[in-house]
Amino acid sequence: MKQMIVHCSQHVTRMALLEKGRLVEYAAEREEQQGLVGSYYKGRVMNVLPGMQAAFVDIGQKKNAFLYVDDVLHPHLEKQPKVKPSIDTLLKPGQEIIVQVRREPRGNKGARVTTHYTLPGRWMVYMPFAEYVGVSKKIGRESERNRLKALAERLRKNEEGLIMRTVSEDELSEAVEGDLSLLRAQWERIMSCAQKAEAPALLHRDLSIVQRFIRDAFDPRLDELRIDSPQAVKEVEAFLSEMAPEGYKPVELYTGTEPIFAAYGVEEQLERGFSRKITLEGGGTLIWDEAEALTVIDVNTAQYTGGASLEETVTRTNLLAAEEIGRLIRLRDTGGIIIIDFIDMEREEHRKMVVSRLESIVNSDRTKTYILGWTRLGLLEMTRKKVRHDVLEFSTRPCECCGGTGRTPMWKQGRE
Fold it and tell me: Keywords on this record (predicted)?
């Protein structure tokens, strides 16, 4: 069972997801800065750059959005030409185009957009022009995979594509069909808005963080949801009644005197989880350093001495570290290249045990994560897709003294 804890202040909503009391996901959103990912825009092509095989599209944001040629071609790989055409044969400056944001703007870069449209529902992801059916790889039973694939093939029309989500396992066909009807109606509303709007224009905004987490990571019939705002409770219950008409557990209004995040231990877990140095059970430590291009995690035995031999002590520490790293990557929403410097192990079977433990944890992560394996230097390399704003950037600010480096130059202190 999961617990979803939501704190609402005047302009900020903060959401924490707990599994067996442990914090596994955290998100925050300002009212005036709701994320763009998933939203649809009617944009205007401003520049087409054949040398980059990309175009820049005005969607009404501060920076023009980036559209790569692969995101203009047909979403079904088998429908794409064998030789990739130049983007200037596909798009022209001044052309109006409907795009969906797939990655948030960051720094000096605008949003990344695509014409491979998707609309996630409760049981499936709807793709109006993809022309294929997929089933989540996390559904292991072959009989259930075949059932869902046959059901999707029966339901889809013309060019539609459907991906059956993990939560659709063992779900009734009537519920899946109802979800598809809602998604089709949503797509029709987007197309209707596009016909009337003048570029650049917002056509459809994705759900708020609370609604998104309910849709993607919440079982309304089993999991608990507590919110400290009466207005937010009403809004969430209205969303649940539409998303889960068959019934859901009542949303609980928190009325305690202690702040809701403190009452459920969220604040304490956030402080620990977002620290640079994290102490593991038994005394081992992680040192977590994030740069713009990659994240580096160093594992140390520190004060952990349990084990009959050095190899056993090292392996136990690495196994504990792998489990905690898997959870913290999801909690911190770490994206891009991730390098983990585990403590050196002599035996290959122990290295396989560590990778297996890490894989078992990241398999529960909804964001695509790939463990690439050990480098020649003995480092574990992995990648995780990055689409939304960095949680750390939103929740913290760089130190005014050191500028975020963790070190203060001596000349700023008047010393040589």
Answer: Hydrolase, Magnesium, Metal-binding, RNA-binding
Q: How many CB atoms lie within 10 A of CB 64?
A: 22
Tens digits of residue pLDDT in 330-384: 999 898 899 999 999 989 999 999 999 999 999 888 888 999 999 999 999 999 9
Architecture of the domain delimited by 39-114: Beta Barrel (2.40)
Secondary structure (3-state) at 161: strand
Q: Which residue has the tokens 């798009």?
A: 91
CATH assignment of 1-34+210-273? Answer: 3.30.420
**Orientation angle between helical segments 310-332 and 266-273, nearest 10 degrees:** 110
Instruction: With a cut of 60, say whether residue 319 has pLDDT above it.
Output: yes
With 0-12 CB in 10 A as exposed, 13-18 as middle and 19+ as buried, what is 368?
exposed
Dist. CA 215–CA 122, nearest whole Å: 6
Counting beta carbons within 10 angstroms of the beta carbon of residue 233, is it exposed (0 to 12), middle (13 to 18) or buried (19 or more)? buried
Write down the pTM of the prediction: 0.78
Residues near 385 by Cβ (< 8 Å), separated by ≥ 6? 335, 367, 368, 369
**Do 103 and 387 touch, CB atoms closer than 8 A?**
yes
∠ Cα 152 156 159 (to 5°): 130
Candidates 411, 407, 409, 374; CA nearest to 289 is 407
For residue 143 the two structure tokens come to: 């009989």
CA distances from 167 to 26, 121, 122, 171 (A): 21, 11, 8, 8
